[in-house]
Amino acid sequence: MAMQLSFDLPSKTALGREDFFVSPANALAVAMISATSWPGNKLVLSGPAGSGKTHLAHVWAGETGGRIVQAAALRYDDVPDLARGPVAVEDVPVIAADVEQQKTLFHLHNLVLAEGHALLMTGRTTPKLWHLPLADLQSRAEGAHHVSLEGPDDALLGAVLAKLFTDRQLNPGPDVIAYLVKHMNRSFETAARVVEQLDEIALTEKRDITRALAVRLLNTEAEQSDACN
Asked: CA dist 111 to 50, 108, 129, 212, Å?
């Protein structure tokens, strides 16, 4: 049986291409990230939290020499420097309430493309639902080629769980992941929360992460959910 070390070790997310599991739920997105060019030299990548947008953005940046910036962290003075190469702008919808930030992104959008470089933008939903008040930016986002990361199938959910455990330097038995895939709510956010909670319980109780522990956690969550309904 694999032993679970009871040390509060920092979580380190692995973001290399070899760490990204390809399944039918994300194969198209992976293919587009790997493409040598995009229509109009820009791409929007969407998907729910935890679906792999940031991971794929890092893969793309590593392969193209591109830079990654959060939309909310963009600064107007930095645009000329950023536009000297490919750029990935993450979480664009979060600036929907900040028109000045949208103007900065619009300036970056135009300058990057004018310099002949590629622009990648990410968000949780399709660009039509970004509702950016700056109409010029909204129309540019909607006009970009768009690819989405779908909800996880069994293979992908199992791989995501395995990666989340590995990021935390945990090594549960294969029966743990098989049980979680079959019984947990099927979402990337749930996977992240369950792994975090299992890690915390194992550390507190100084025990291995076993199938029995996973059963206990999911049963407790189900009871709490029933009590709230």
From this structure: 30, 5, 25, 55
Give per-residue pLDDT as tens, 177-216: 999 999 998 888 899 999 999 999 999 999 999 999 999 9
Q: Is the dihedral of CA 21, 24, 25, 27 positive or negative?
A: positive
The C-alpha atoms of residue 201 and residue 207 are separated, in whole angstroms, by 8
What strands lie across the sheet with 145-148, from one edge to the other? 67-70, 87-90, 119-123, 42-46, 145-148
Residue 3: name the closest of 170, 150, 167, 130 by CA. 170
d(CA 133, CA 138): 7
Dihedral (C-alpha) 207, 194, 163, 178: value to the nearest 10 degrees?
80
Residues of the chain predicted below pLDDT 50: 1-15
Find, among 147, 143, 152, the residue nearest to 57 by Cα: 147
What does the pLDDT look like over 58-72, one tens digit per residue?
999 999 999 999 999
Cα–Cα dist 229/227, whole Å: 6
- Residue 123 token pair: 């968000």
- pTM of the full structure: 0.70
Q: How far is CA 125 from the centre of its chain?
A: 12
Q: Which two tokens stand for residue 47?
A: 């998907």
